[in-house]
Amino acid sequence: DIQMTQSPSSLSASVGDRVTITCRARQSIISFLNWYQQKPGTAPKLLIYAASSLQSGVPSRFSGSGSGTDFTLNISSLQPEDFAIYYCQQSYSTPPTFGGGTKVEIK
Amino acid sequence: QVQLVQSGAEVKKPGASVKVSCKASGYSFTSYYMHWVRQAPGQGLEWMGIINPSGGSTHYAQKLQDRVTMTRDTSTSTVYMELSSLRPEDTAVYYCVREYRVYTQNWFDPWGQGTLVTVSS
How does strand B58-60 pair with strand B78-83? Predict the structure, then answer.
């Protein structure tokens, strides 16, 4: 199984801040990396697929980058509705595996 | 619109089985693989397995393969996940999620609303 490691595990930020979340794979996964957002009591929601493609309907302040083993999710200007937990997921090989999550909290 | 609607919450005793359903609508049911993912309280996401709704073939996570069974009913566009020999550590929210694939890339979208399964004596 491919282990996915996210950092930080949590962060505090203010509205308007730029936020960066990192996801690292134990081996190269090329660009087979997806990002999800989960708010309390709800199912995860797809934000970014194939490392850098923005899912339809997702605000353009979200962006993804990276390839190989190192990936980032950026939120250019944090909004109140962005406070949530973010997960990366590799789709390079079975079983698909998730990072441990990054909780974005209000400062 | 594409939608996955799951069955309601369940409370089970240790050793029992649970069967969760997931009804798909808004797309061709047999054209997309379906996965199950679970999330223990306050924890991360764990992949459980996949079913091909077209032929019914399955592949399960190694740690669950002796206890999980995924099936489908094409007449009602519904997939099922049955977990047997339940343990307290199986307490979790269980999600069905469609795999969307473009060439070799694939991702999970959408997700069902989740079904809470509580295992307690």
Answer: unpaired
- Please say whether the beta carbons of A102 and A6 come within 8 A: yes
Q: Which of A41, A47, A40, A29 is nearest to A96 (CA)?
A: A29
User: pLDDT tens for residues B74-112?
Assistant: 999 999 999 999 999 999 999 999 999 999 999 999 999
Q: Answer whether residue A30 shows pLDDT above 90.
A: yes
Residue type, A95: P
Q: Does B114 touch chain A (CB under 8 A)?
A: yes
B10-12/B115-119 β-pairing: parallel
Chain B partners within 8 Å of A100 (Cβ): 44
Q: Is there a contact between A36 and A45 (Cβ–Cβ < 8 Å)?
A: yes
Chain A residues within 8 A of B94 when measuring between CB atoms: none
The answer to whether B6 and B96 have CB atoms below 8 angstroms apart is yes
Q: Quote the Cα angle for A99-A67-A63, to 5°.
A: 75
* A contact test, residue of B108, B111, B113, B115 with most A CBs within 10 A: B108
pLDDT tens for A14-25 read 999 999 999 999
